[in-house]
Amino acid sequence: MYEYWWRFKNSNWMSLSLTLVAVTAAALLCWFVIPILGSAAYSLFKSPQSSTNPPITDYSNLLKALTTIVTALVAIISLIYGWSRSLMPGSTRAVRTFLESTRDPMEALTCHFNSLIRWIGQPVAVFIDDVDRCQGGYIVDLLEGIQTLFRDVPVTYVVAADRRWLCTSYEKAYETFAGSIGEPGRTVGHLFLDKIFQLSTSVPRLAPAIQADYWQSLLGRKEAGIQAAGQEARMEASATLERLHTEESILTELQSDPVDALYDQALREQAVIRLATPNLTTQTEHRLQPFAALVEPNPRAMKRLVNAYGAMRAIDILKGGRLIEPGRLALWTIVTLRWPVLAEYLEIHPEIVRHILHGTPVQENHVTPEHVRKLLVDSEVARVIRGQEVGMQLDEATIRSCANLPPSEN
Known about the structure:
Elements: H1 2-9, H2 13-45, H3 56-85, H4 92-101, H5 105-120, E1 124-129, H6 136-149, E2 155-160, H7 163-173, H8 178-181, H9 188-196, H10 208-218, H11 224-242, H12 247-255, H13 261-275, H14 278-287, H15 299-318, H16 326-338, H17 340-348, H18 353-358, H19 370-376, H20 379-386, H21 396-402
Parallel strand pairs: 1-2
C-alpha cells in the first residue's frame, strides 16, 4: 500500500488532472442523461391494452441516451485503466513519467527505497539469481548501481552466480586498468568483487543421505513419520549442543560416533546454528587471532577472514564426513582470500601444494600458467601455506576435502 501511495504522489499530475476532468464530465453527462433515459424508457414500455405503436421520437431518445451512457462508461474505464497502469510495478510508462517529472530521479528513488525499508520494519534480503546468464556490461551496471545507490540502506543482497563469470565481466569492463591495479593472485575482477561483497562462498554439495531424502520427497514417498522424526532429532540435537559452550567441544561432539544418520544430520544442522551465536562468534575471532599476521595488515581483512572461515566451517560441517582441522581450514581460507587465482588452480591440481611445502620446482612439462608459476615460488604464499607461525601447514588432504575431491591415492 505504501508503494502505491508513493507512486500516486509521484505520478504525472497533468495526466491525473485530465483524468479527473474527464471523469467529472462523464459523471455530469450521465447525471443529465439518465433522467432522459428513464423518461424515454417509461414512455416506450408503458403498454395500455389499447396502446398504439410508440412514437418514433421515443425510440430516438432512448437510443441517444443509451449511446451517451455507453460512450461515457467506455471513456471512464479507458482513462482509469490507462492511469492505473502507470501505478503498476514494472510499468514502462511509470518509469518514463518518473524520470521526466523528477529533477533528480536517482536521489528520489534512493530516498524512497530507504523509506520503504523503514516502513517494512523487518530485516530484508534481496535474492538475485541467474546473473551469470546476463551480459557482462549489464552485470557491472547492476552491481555498481546497488553499491552506489543503496549502499546505506539496511538490506542484505544475496547474489547467486558463477564467480568466474562475474570476475570476467569486471575484467572486460575495466581492462584498461588491468596493468595498473591488478595484484599477484588477484585480477581486477577479484579486486572488484572483494570490495562489493562482504562474503563469497560456494554452494555446498548435498551429503548422500540428504540427497536421497530430498529425492524421496520429490517422488512423494517421504512419509510424515520421517518428517516428525527429523523434527524430534533436531530438538534433541539442539538440547545437546546447548550444554556445550566452546567451538572445540561442539566439533568434538560432531566427531563422535553417530546414533543414526537422521540424528547425525540434525546435529550438524544445529551445530551450524549454534556456532553462529554471538558468544561463539567472539570465540572464533580470538581463535583466529594468531592468523592475523598472515592476512593483509588492515582491519577489513581480518573481518573478512572471520566471515569466510565461518562460512567454510559451516559447509564442512553440513557436508558430512570427517571434519577439517580448524587451523588448516583457516590457512585455506586465507589462500582463497589473498590469492583466489592460486586457490582455483589448487582445487584442480591439489598435489601441486607439495612443491610449495618442500620448495621444489614444478616440472616444465606440467601445464601451469606463467602467473600461477610465479605464485608457486612466492615467499608470501609459502609463508601462509607452510604456516610456521601458527604451528601447522596446509596439506593436500585439506585442499581435496575443501574442493570435494576424492582422497589422494598416494
